[in-house]
Amino acid sequence: MEELISIFDKYINTQEFHFGLESLRQILKEAKKKKSLPFVMDEEDHILIENFSQFYIRPIYLFKDSSHIFDNELSVLEIISKYTIIDENQEIKNYSFIDSQSDLFIQASDIFVGLMGKFFSYINTNTRENIIGDFESLSERQFNNIDALIDLIDKSNDKNVAFLHSIDSYEELAKMSLIDEIRRRKHA
What we know:
Layout: H1 2-7, H2 15-34, H3 53-62, E1 68-71, H4 74-80, E2 86-87, E3 90-91, E4 95-98, H5 104-125, H6 128-136, H7 140-159, H8 170-187
Parallel strand pairs: 1-4
Antiparallel strand pairs: 2-3
């Protein structure tokens, strides 16, 4: 664990990494004292996330008065069908799985989710400096498209913070704030 901690020593004072690395350093120090690495020991090798069922279950119970239509994911359906979600002694069964090939709304949703995935992958894999440079070099049309996407994200969040579900780190959230700052400057 000391060797692991020493790997990121030279990055710990870099603003964009400090919070995350300091948190990790404290977790590793505590693990060293207890001689245990939670979330790593006694786990199956090469498996980061066993399944994505929790991402499907969350809206089912969170928005219990809504109807949820998911793209056919047989492995997820199999897991979810083992759960019984109860609210006030009544089972919540507000979801279905449909083949995207036969439903234009699911196809449109897949496109939008893919676009969001690309956007957040970009944020996760680029430095602040790269993001600033990229945003400064966008054409007007490119900027307007990114601006419209972020406006939609913001409007969704303003409507209901539960619409968005993020597991991003502090650093990725800080990069989103940086993008918002760039957008405000361009709109000024």
